[in-house]
Design goal:
With about 60 residues, the chain is mostly beta strands. It has no helices and five strands. The strands form two sheets. A three-stranded antiparallel sheet has the order 3-4-5, with no helix packed on it. The chain starts with a strand and ends in a 10-residue tail after the last strand.
Length: about 60
């Protein structure tokens, strides 16, 4: 998210693909705030993809 008037980022949103052992793959949605230079991951949701052997092809 970007504040147009201030010309600064308010928050940055990301998604990671995570493989939890014996459980399968998840999409991990999170965001970052500028107060710590966007270092800390603030979780939004983990969405189960399924499949212990096949990762999701979300970038293709």
């Amino acid at each position: 998210m970007h504040n147009i008037k201030e010309k600064q980022d308010v928050a940055r949103f990301h998604v990671n693909r995570v493989r939890k052992p014996q459980d399968g793959y998840y999409f991990q949605f999170h965001y970052h705030l500028p107060n710590d230079q966007y270092e800390e991951h603030l979780p939004l949701a983990d969405i189960y993809w399924g499949g212990k052997d096949t990762p999701p092809k979300w970038m293709s």
